[in-house]
Structures are given as C-alpha cells and as structure tokens.
Design goal:
The structure holds two protein chains of two kinds.
Chain A: E1 3-8, H1 14-26, E2 30-35, H2 44-54, E3 58-62, H3 70-76, H4 93-112, H5 122-130, H6 134-143, H7 147-163, H8 168-177, E4 181-185, H9 195-204, E5 207-211, H10 217-220, E6 230-233, H11 236-246, E7 253-255, H12 262-266, H13 273-280, E8 288-292, H14 303-314, H15 319-322, E9 325-329, E10 349-351, H16 364-373, E11 378-380, H17 385-392, E12 396-399, H18 413-418, E13 424-427, H19 430-442, H20 451-458, H21 467-480, H22 491-510, H23 516-594
Chain B: E1 6-9, H1 16-33, E2 36-39, E3 49-51, E4 56-58, H2 61-103, H3 110-127, E5 145-147, H4 149-162, E6 170-173, H5 179-191, E7 195-198, E8 212-214, H6 223-232, E9 235-238, H7 241-250, E10 254-259, H8 262-265, E11 272-276, E12 278-281, H9 296-308, E13 315-318, H10 322-337, H11 345-361, H12 366-371, E14 382-383, H13 385-391
Parallel strand pairs in B: 1-2, 2-4, 6-7, 6-9, 7-8, 9-10, 10-11, 11-14
Antiparallel strand pairs in B: 3-5, 12-13
The chains are: A alpha/beta, B alpha/beta.
C-alpha cells in the first residue's frame, strides 16, 4: 500500500477531497495531510480532527514552519501599520531566500494579468498589484504592458526561481515522511510557498501532483510556477486552461471530474418541505427562490443588491413572482455583511442558515441541499452554488450588475457558467431577469437538469459515473508509479546562488515597501544609532562600574581623611593634655624647688 | 480695485456644488474683511453663477488678462504647496516608521529605545497631512446666488420639456435607498400636493406616475437642470453631500437621509434637517446607537477602511425605513409651513454633543478634523426630532 502526502494550504481544503481521502484510506493507503497554515475561522480545524479520527490510515499534522509566511511578508509592507512587530528580528540567509521566492512569485502572478486573456480582468490585476511591494509596481506596470519586455521579465523571474534553493526543513520533512506521492493544493495562491514542496520533491526524487481544488483556481489566481509531475483537473475546460495559461504539457494532465460535487448527485432531502420551510421561516404553501451569496471578492457589498432583487420581484406586477418566497443563503466566508439585511421588513423572506452558523455543524450540508431542492430556482452573482443547483436540476439565474462587473465579466471562470455550454441564464438587468424568471416559472422556457453541462464540466466520464473513485484511482495509479530519479542542484545553479544571494538580501529589504530614500538613509541612520548606543552603553558602564568605584573611593578617602583627622585631633588633644599636664607638673616642681607658694 | 483685497475665483463649473461652495466661502470671507470677489470667466463651461449680495467685480480686457495670470500663478503655488505638504507628511511618516523600526531593536539599550520612541511620537504630528477644514462658518449666512438670464430661460425650457411647470410646489428627490422606501416617501409627497423630480446618478426603476419626473435616466446628465431643479424646489430630499451643498448655494431647505455619521451630514444652514441610518456591528449583529456614532472606535474603523483601501469595514448600514422617512418628511413640511420654529431641547442637546465629540475626536480622526466643527460651529441645522429624542 502506498504512502501519500497531501500538502494543503489550510484545513479548509479538506472539503474538496474529503470523500476521496476516505476512499484512499479505505483501500489501505496511508494518507498524511500537512497544513501550511492553521485555520479555525469556519471550523476547519474541527474538520481536520474529525477526518483524522475517522480512520487509522489518515493523519493530520502541520507542515514545517516557515521563517516568513506570505502573510508575514505582506504585513511587512503594510504602510498603514504603526506597530512594529519583529521588524528587527535578526534575519537569516533563509529569510532572504524566502523573501526572494515570495517576491519572484508575486511578480510572476502580477505579470500574468497583463496577458491578452485577462484584458477585462482589471480587478484581478489590482488585487495582485496590492500584494507587491510598491517599489516594483511603478516599473513593472509600465514594462508589463508590452509583450516582449513582459516575456523577458518573466523568463528572468523563472531563471531566478530555478536558482532559489529548496528549503532544508521541507527536504527533511519529505525525507522523513518518504511518501510515494506528494499531492499539493491549491499551489496557485498569489505568491504561494507550496512551490517549495514541488521543488523539494524533485530534488529528493518523489513524484508530485497538483490537485486543482476549484473551478476558478487556474484563472483567477496565480501561476503554477514550477510544474509538478502531474496536474489533476476536473474537466476539459480546466485542462485547456492548464495548457494555455500555465504551460502544462497535455500528457501531464489527468481529467477526473469534480469529485467535490459527487455528494450532490446522491443526496436526498433530509426533511419534508413543510418542515424545512417552517424552520427557515418561509410560507410552506408558496414556492420560493433561493438567492445564493457569493464570496467577498466577487460581492463585497451584496446586501443592497439582494434587497433590490427582492423588490424587483415583489413589484414586478406579475402575481406569481410577487408572491414568491425568497430564501437568502449567505456565502459561508462572506456571511458577516448579511447581519445588515433586515429580512423582517420583507414578508415571506428569510436568511437561512442564520448568519454565523458553523459550516461544520451537523446538518449544515443537508440544510443547503434541502434549500436548493425545495426551491423553484436559484439566483446568484457568481458562485459554485450555481453549479450545485444545476446538479439538483433547478433553473439557475444571474443578473449582470455594474457593482459586480469585476466578479462577472471580469473573471474567466464566470464564462463557464454563462457561455453557450453554461448552465446559468444571465440577464442584463433586473427587469430582464424578472421576465426570464416569469418565463421559466410559466414553463415557456425549459427548466430541469442540463445534462450537457454536467457532462462537460462536472462529470466528464459520464453523468452517472461518480468522480471520486476516478480521482482516487488516478491518485492510486500515480502513487504506484516508479519514483523519478532525484534531481539535485547542478553545479551551475549552486554557483549562481552566490550573486543571487545578494539579490535575495535586496528582496528581503525591499519587501518592506518603503520609498527608496529610506533605504539610502538607513545605513547612516543605523550607524548614528549604533554610535548613540555605544555612548549609552558607555554611560551605562560608567554608571554601573566607574561611578560606584569613584563614589567608593571618594568615600574611602573622605573616611580616611575624616578618621585620620579625628585621630589627629584626638592625639593632639591628648598630647595637648599631656603637655598641659607636664607643664603644670613642671610648674609645680619649679615652684616647689624655688620655695614659691 | 480701490485698495480693497480681491478674492480671485475661477470656479470649476463642471462640479456645480463644489463651485458653489467656493463661491459662497469667498463671498463670506470678502464680506468679513471688506474685500471684493472677482470671478474670472471660464469659457470651457457654460454654467455660471453670480453673487448678488457681495461686492463682485468683473474683470475685462487687460485687467482680466493680468488677473488671470495672477490666478494661474496663485493656483500653481497652491498646488505646489499642497504637493509639498503631502511630500513632507509622507516623509515624516516614513521617518517615524524608521525610528520605530530602529526602536524595536532589542539589542539597543532600553533608554535609547525609549528615546527613539519619543522622537517617533514627536514626529507623528508632522506625519499627518494638513487638513483642509470644511468651511462651515463661512457657509452659515446665505448668499444670493443667481444664474444668468439666458441660463434661467434655458433651464425653464428644459424643465418644461420634462413635464415640470413653473410655480408648482416641487420637491427634488435623490435617494439610492430601497425602491419601496423611496416609493413610500414619494407617495407621501404626492399626497401632500408636491411634484417630485427624481435626480441622482443611478436611477432605480420608477413606476410611471403622474407628478413624478425621473431625471435620473437623462443622458447626459444636465448639471444646469439639476441646479435649477434644486433652486425651484420647496425643499430637497437627498442622500449625497453634493446635493446638500447645492442646496446651500440656492438656499433651498434640505433633508439629508441615510447619513452614515453626523459630522459630514450636519446641515450648516438652519433650514436643513438630517436623519442618520442605523449602523450594524457585523461581528455581533447589534445595531449601534446614535451615541455610539460619536465615539472613537466608530471613526477608527472608517480610518482603517480609508488607509487600507477596503470597501467594507466592521459595520454594515441599514437605511432609514419608510416610517422614519415619512416622519422626517412630516417634520420638514411642518418646519416649512410654520417658518422653521425653534428646535427642541433634544435637538439642541444633540448639537452640543456633536460639537463636543468633534472637538475631542479631531485630534485622532482626520475625517472628523476635516468635517467636524469649525471653530466650535457645526451647523444651524438639526437632527430629525424622532432620532434626537432617542439620543436623550
């Protein structure tokens, strides 16, 4: 049986692979999960504990600690921060390499958004730009606009990436765990440090594979900077993205289907419609529409739109639409803003589940399924819930709105939903959307499951063929393949590290994102502060040693003087007394001798 | 110019509200010090206003050319000064960060680190960009501003074409609030016999209705029409500061709704009312009281949003409800009908609280420093009574 090491950014990624991990463990494979970042915002740590407890073949552990995470790197360049944390922590050589690696990866990610495919994706570019230290953006934003200089810079960056050494702690971690297969996900986060696992796996001689976690991963985030041995994707659309946008050779791509959606094909409602509507606060005698919230990037301010959407229905003048119930389901990672939504001001409207519900609580997924299953249609801006609704066979809608342009036409993955093969009916305005809804509910437009879409996007091996066993089988096959030969660093690369280290030191400093004059000012300022520190030190020494010694000496001298003067006085007084006594004796003797009285 | 100080002004007429405020501030200042306002002609934009109750001179010929040069020089100097201020503030900020960075070095003697921290703190006041305070005091007294006769004729024709006859009781209504709430407010206004002109950037769908004129769908937007509409209105209902300022220019009574904080919204003129929305703490889902909106944490969140370019902070906002809006409109109507009677005790107390809070917060919040009380004066307007009563 094989040993599989699955490195995830944080335990939140378990939800994409939970069933597949269970399947692998049940087949006797040893599955070790390592998390780069611990996270408990949405109860992800609980998921990891539950998974580990479910089988003796599953182990969860933290990945090796990095000297500087991407988050730390970004925090260093936060100009608005006033508090200084560990800016003056002594920086090691490893810090410098980590900084250089993160800088190079962020730069590559930024450059990709200048490619022609991302012409409409201004917000994605801005998001990548925000993560870069300011000193680079001024130059790059100009250079990157022309194709030839952009390619040149990218090649340079790829060259630097190749020179950056692997991380010792990761090499050791991989050697210790000695897996037959290394899986990484998501790898494509902006500036991701998971690249180091792929590099270390190459060096140590371990087969590696990237598991693409979600439908937007290859288009809205960063690049696969160092190619793993295999890339596991959901469908042909992602395979094409991997080839064209990331340069992955076709023979390294495995299409398995979207295993994360398998349970949606098998699920059945957990309770009756009356029961569900009663709990959610809807009128069970009336049909309802489900509004599914989107992530914070797509819809930072979704509540006002949701209110307008509901009012458009209520004031449509079409009785069937005006009487519809409305159930709002906030995106679990973007739920906070729904606290401002006052559902009590709309009859037969509710938020379900209540904001703040733990997504790992029992019945959460069943609740979600029920809310889709009993709905008459699902509406959303741009969210994976729209795919889930299409699996259940509900008509799915979206409305184009200027405030969400960046998250709709501004992203490439939105096109999968709305293009000719897509499953979502889009409308250019609320008025058009209302019309669409009326037509679908009246039966003038077809509704029901779109098998073509599901076959193309979710289950490419057949709508009735679950993706999880295919995914697990692909992983099994990869883990049984012979190991690649270790590829230690060549002499040329090692030699190139000497000048590259200077670049790394510069990257470490420039990551602070300060104006250039600060860096020029720093050496003389540091020198002046060192001199001042030496003076303070001197003063401290003086206060600590010299001053007490002087004080002691002064006291001793004074005491000696005092005591000697006292003694002298005493002696003098005694001598004086003796003299007086002697004089008196002499006088008496003289008087007696001369017979004087 | 008979030795009197002259205020040279070339307002940017493409932004009528801003230009109007500049004009009012200059007129007030001229009246204060016995000076004159000289309006330089702007051939790029046809919309022009003139002052009737302040000494205004018109420059012509060579004098106009000379004054224009002077204005350009002064304008360039002002821009240079602003750039210098920004640069020095930025440099001071970086210097402060550097000092604090050095002070964090634990290898340095404690006393030196302490000294560096003190130096950094001393630099903090230079690191803050200088703030141009909103000139509340100068806007206090109304000025009589008028449009040229041709423009008035042009605007009248445009309004008539839109269906607004001259002399009808008109209310200009600008709101991005929920359509049902806006509809309820408009219905109230119609019941009271007003004609309603809807203005604003993004127009919500308005049901076609007698005496409701939708100017939001006009493309391109006509600043002249908006200005004239505000000027011809009995009062305006607005959500943006721009329209509130335009109402100062024309001295039209204004009701600002859905205000997210009291400083920006506080009406300068006595014929202004405003209503605050309800902020919701997104962590606890609890609504904030109006008193909470005068505290430092509320503005700290705003500052964080601005500094980090975030679109959302720790608070969400619930707009005024239809009931609240109608109550506010009733108060507005009562005030107009009875000639703005004295405000209630609770309204006066609220003003005093805003002034006190403004004085206390100005040191820690640049936003409050900019929009807060101007030499202790926040405005002669008032918070709607039902909210002011709730505060007390």
């Amino acid at each position: 049986m094989s040993r599989i090491l699955f490195v995830m950014l944080h335990p939140g990624f378990i939800r994409y692979y939970e069933d597949a991990i269970h399947t692998l463990a049940a087949s006797g494979h040893q599955v070790n999960l390592a998390f780069e970042v611990s996270r408990d915002k949405l109860g992800e740590d609980v998921t990891a504990q539950r998974l580990a407890a479910s089988s003796p073949n599953i182990h969860c552990e933290p990945a090796p600690q990095r000297t500087e995470s991407v988050r730390d790197f970004l925090a260093r360049s936060d100009r608005a921060a006033v508090r200084v944390h560990d800016e003056q922590r002594p920086r090691s050589g490893q810090d410098a390499w980590e900084s250089l690696a993160t800088t190079v990866r962020l730069l590559e990610d930024y450059l990709r958004f200048f490619e022609p495919e991302f012409r409409g994706a201004e917000t994605l570019r801005v998001r990548a730009e925000k993560r870069l230290p300011r000193v680079y953006t001024n130059v790059l934003s100009v250079v990157a606009r022309s194709t030839a200089p952009r390619r040149l810079v990218r090649q340079l960056l790829q060259g630097i990436e190749a020179v950056i050494p692997t991380v010792d702690s990761i090499d050791t971690f991989l050697r210790d765990r000695n897996p037959d297969l290394l899986l990484v996900t998501p790898l494509i986060e902006l500036g991701s440090q998971q690249v180091d696992y792929v590099k270390s796996a190459r060096k140590v001689g371990i087969r590696s594979a990237l598991c693409v976690a979600s439908w937007d991963n290859l288009t809205s985030k960063g690049l696969i900077r160092v190619l793993p041995d295999e890339v596991v994707v959901w469908n042909e659309a992602q395979a094409a993205e991997a080839r064209t946008l990331h340069g992955v050779p076709a023979d390294r791509i495995i299409v398995t289907g979207a295993q994360t959606f398998d349970r949606w094909f098998a699920m059945r409602p957990s309770r009756s419609r009356e029961d569900f509507c009663g709990r959610a606060g809807l009128d069970p005698n009336r049909p309802y529409l489900l509004y599914t919230g989107s992530s914070v990037f797509i819809a930072p301010e979704e509540v006002p739109f949701a209110e307008r959407w509901l009012l458009a229905l209520r004031e449509s003048g079409i009785p069937r639409l005006a009487e519809l119930g409305a159930l709002f389901r906030p995106h679990p990672a973007n739920a906070r803003q729904w606290h401002a939504f006052d559902s009590s001001s709309f009859p037969n409207a509710a938020i379900w589940p209540p904001v703040g519900t733990d997504p790992n609580s029992p019945g959460f997924k069943e609740d979600f399924f029920d809310s889709v299953y009993y709905s008459d249609g699902v509406v959303g801006i741009n969210t994976s819930a729209q795919i889930e609704a299409s699996i259940v066979g509900r008509p799915v809608f979206t409305v184009r709105s200027p405030e969400f342009a960046h998250g709709q036409e501004g992203t490439l993955h939105f096109r999968h939903l709305v293009d000719e093969r897509g499953v979502v009916r889009e409308a250019a305005s609320l008025e058009a959307h209302v019309q669409q809804l009326a037509e679908v509910l009246n039966g003038s437009l077809p509704s029901g499951r779109k098998e073509d879409f599901l076959k193309w996007f979710v289950r490419p091996h057949g709508v009735d063929t679950p993706a999880t066993p295919i995914f697990a089988s692909a992983i099994e096959t990869l883990s049984c393949k012979s190991r690649p030969a270790p590829r230690p660093d060549s002499a040329g690369r090692r030699a190139a590290r000497v000048p590259a280290f200077l670049v790394a030191r510069a990257a470490l400093t420039l990551a602070e994102g300060r104006p250039l004059w600060v860096y020029f000012l720093r050496p003389p300022m540091t020198l002046a502060i060192r001199v001042a520190a030496a003076l303070y030190e001197l003063q401290d020494r003086w206060d600590e040693h010299v001053r007490p010694a002087l004080k002691h000496t002064r006291r001793a001298v004074w005491r000696a003087w005092y005591e000697s003067s006292q003694r002298l006085g005493h002696t003098w007084r005694r001598s004086k007394k003796r003299l007086i006594r002697a004089a008196r004796g002499a006088r008496g003797t003289a008087r007696r001798a001369f017979g004087l009285r | 110019m008979n030795g009197r100080p002259v205020f040279l002004l070339r307002p940017d007429w493409s932004q009528p509200a801003r230009a109007g405020i500049d004009l009012l501030a200059a007129a007030a200042r001229a009246r204060e010090i016995g000076g004159t306002v000289c309006l330089l002609p702007d051939s790029t934009h046809p919309l022009r206003m003139s002052l009737e109750d302040a000494p205004v001179i018109a420059a012509e010929g060579r004098q106009a050319a000379w004054l224009s040069v002077r204005w350009r020089m002064a304008s360039a100097a002002r821009e240079l000064h602003a750039w210098w201020r920004e640069t020095t503030a930025s440099a001071a900020h970086e210097w402060r960060r550097e000092l604090r960075r050095q002070a964090a070095d634990e290898r340095l003697p404690f006393a030196l680190r302490q000294r560096l921290r003190e130096m950094a703190d001393a630099t903090a006041r230079y690191a803050r960009p200088e703030i141009d305070r909103y000139p509340r005091r100068l806007l206090r007294a109304p000025s009589s501003v008028s449009l040229s006769r041709t423009l008035i004729e042009e605007a009248r024709t445009e309004l008539k074409a839109c269906g607004i006859d001259e002399g009808v009781p008109l209310v200009t209504f600008e709101s991005r609030t929920r359509p049902d709430v806006a509809a309820a407010a408009i219905a109230f206004l119609l019941r009271e016999g007003y004609t309603v002109a809807r203005v604003g950037g993004r127009g919500e769908r308005v049901r076609s209705c007698d005496r409701v004129v939708d100017l939001t769908s006009m493309r391109p937007r006509s600043p002249l029409l908006e200005l004239f509409c505000v000027s011809a209105s009995t009062f305006i209902v607005c959500e943006s500061l721009n329209l509130q300022q335009l109402a100062y220019v024309t001295n039209t009574p204004s009701l600002l709704i859905n205000a997210r904080e009291p400083f920006v919204a506080y009406p300068v003129r006595a014929n202004g009312l405003f209503a605050l929305c309800t902020p919701i703490d997104l962590e606890t889902a609890q609504g904030l009281t109006i008193g909470d909106m005068l505290t430092e944490p509320y503005f700290r969140d705003l500052r964080k949003q601005e500094a980090r370019g975030r679109r959302r902070g720790s608070y969400g906002y619930r707009d005024n409800t239809a009931d609240e809006l109608i109550k506010a409109l009733e108060e507005m109507k009562a005030c107009i009908d009875s000639g703005w009677p004295g405000e209630s005790d609770s309204q006066s107390r609220f003003r005093a609280r805003v002034v006190d809070a403004g004085a206390a917060l100005a040191a820690v919040s640049p936003h409050v420093a900019e929009w807060g009380p101007d030499a202790g004066f926040i405005g002669d307007g008032r918070l709607v009574r039902f909210q002011a009563d709730r505060v007390s």
